[in-house]
Amino acid sequence: MTHILIVEDESRITTFLEKGLQASGYTTTPASSGADATAIALDGNVDLLLLDLGLPGQNGLDVLKDLRGQGFQAPVIILTARSGIDDKVAGFELGADDYLTKPFRFEELLARIRARLRNPSTPADHSPTVLTQGDIALDLRTRRLRLGGQPVDLSAREFTLLETFMRNADQVLSRQHLLDLVWGYDYEPGSNVVDVYVGYLRKKLGSHAIETVRGMGYRFTR
Ligand code: CA
Hints:
This protein is of the alpha/beta class. Helix content is 40%, strand content 22%. It has a 5-stranded parallel beta sheet, sandwiched between helices. A 4-stranded antiparallel beta sheet has the order 6-7-8-9, covered by helices on one side. Helix 2 (34-42) runs parallel beside helix 3, helix 6 packs across helix 7 (175-183) and helix 6 crosses helix 8 (193-205). The structure holds calcium ion.
């Protein structure tokens, strides 16, 4: 299993990241301070590190400098509210591989994580590249859907929603959980966007692919 260390002092964001990454097939460990992060990272089995910059005590850039100085090799993605060019330049100079500013969309973070883990100089990503269920085959590398062998067009959001359903087949997923996983945390409260997109997927996959579980949410059953 690919192991991601999440260095973040805001528990709301840590929870959001852990839920999303675990649902996407990763194992995660949270760390809320630089000292904890350094100890876990140097312990050796971290495949990728997500690093907040505004941390209590030692800030994220110092953590990064320490880790790279001590030979930590895994990719580091900085995830921060700081969007200034100075922080970005400093981050890359100290050995970060990527930089994403908050607020962010979970699907973009996931795409960046996958891109970093595909780099052959880093440990291999053993998660599957094609999800299949019945006659549905969803290729995570080419981002294409085949239904009974025939290509079907999906928007980026439809793709991420279907991927989430397929990774959690036969489980009931609440609208809130789907909003968190697919839309990130910056959607409109009370939004019916999940229902709208489930409707789009049903049109493309057949209406029985996704079951409505009254009062609870949706279940992918195909
Ligand atoms: Ca912070």
